[in-house]
């Protein structure tokens, strides 16, 4: 079968590089399940509030107050897959900005048949993922959108490519295409405004900015800055990196900056790891992933020529969108792994906690707690806040405790004898340090969001079809976990604590199919369940919204990805409700509410790409010439275009 870039990334996340997975013993599982016997194949069926309360005192308290009604007023849409998007009745879902839309006065109009790297650098990038909204002058109808452009699908971007046959086949890929790909990566900052009820973007705003791995200089800060292992021939000091790669999800800090997360950076490197001085360390990160041809034309991406370049990616990057001249900063204190997102929450003593997932099968959940308190009155005072603090990795025990293990040089096994000569080593090799501490290997931790009011922290565990029955544990309760689950960390507001409790909120997939082993509140309708939770958002009302990424697995669920509302408290806890779905082959990214909840921005990523061969009426995989959909333009000759969609309520008002 022909190679599919998107599927390749999916497979990279599929393939565990964490080889030291301990198979927990059956007794432990039994112990865990007996503590909460209702979990045992029963799902939420027949459960009263009291039983739910037994697992979550906070929920019990809220339920006791009688909050049992549906917190979402919309009529849900139906599962399905077709060439366009759908939103719940009473809402509009309008295309706000598309791949190729010009951001600056002199930017050329998008022409996919005559694209150039210089044009692409002045246009909205490809594969929009994270979306952040930064209000301007305190307004909720006017602000900046900060959007990640995670990766590129060259077979859908460029005409005339034969399509690669495998991940090492770069037939037809030219130097100019590589430059266009680089220019289509990174981020866009773009001013947006709502006028007459409708959103539009402002071309040539003084805030508009493209940040790319082709041309944007960034600083390395924190314990790794200047270290020997991040020095290259272009950067003898180890403090200055060009660009950011595979920016997946992200977060917003209380002082208004954006955190953008470098995920599958391994895919951009070529070369032979056999001769690399850090061969084993590279292997834990899957470097070189060899999924792009960049290393053929740019020595930075050839590990033979620049052995330290991979150590300069895999970080969380802080960006000040209000200052287009600002230099993005790679915050190394937050660790190096395949960062999905970064959810900030103020701690009980005024510091900052950042919850983060490492998106690969059998990788870990992390949190960073700053050393210093956040100065909310003076944003500039927080300039170094993310450079000092403690990074922790999670161990989820069968008794419902999550223990946060500090990744601190000199503590426990993190010593020179074990290969960690300094805190810089601990951070560059975060995964290896977390392995040494005995963190719990999870079913692909993706987005994490915190509910600041309740202290609940939601963890999206997308799937893990590599987990065997032997490897099942309490917190990852299904083998061959195709559909994923949602975990809740019950902090009760104690975000600095080294121990909290955890609960499984839902086990995803169709509850009507016994073999799936799903667990939902029985109030969930036939359309309310979802599969493969990936990104999420908590709105200003404290309601959870989940978006999905099934990849090529959507034929197994029979529905496209989309947005689901999710009840987390009271009698309806664990009830899903379908709000939006994407066109065929896309995944749903970037759910982002304006602070008044009157707009939901969502990012439709890689339309036409996934599972096109399983889509009725379409022959084989999608290409530029024969995509499974031409969403959103539906014009002959125009390829599908990843786009941000603005969802509003007809006549105004709160979403959902
Ligand atoms: Fe880029 Fe893990 O999704
Ligand atoms: Ca994601
Ligand atoms: Ca994803």
From TrEMBL:
**PROSITE patterns assigned:** TAT
Q: Provide the protein name.
A: PhoX family protein
Name the source organism. Answer: Litchfieldella rifensis
Disordered: annotated span: 611-642
- Source organism lineage? Bacteria, Pseudomonadati, Pseudomonadota, Gammaproteobacteria, Oceanospirillales
For this protein, the record's Pfam families field holds: PhoX
Q: Which domain of life is it from?
A: Bacteria
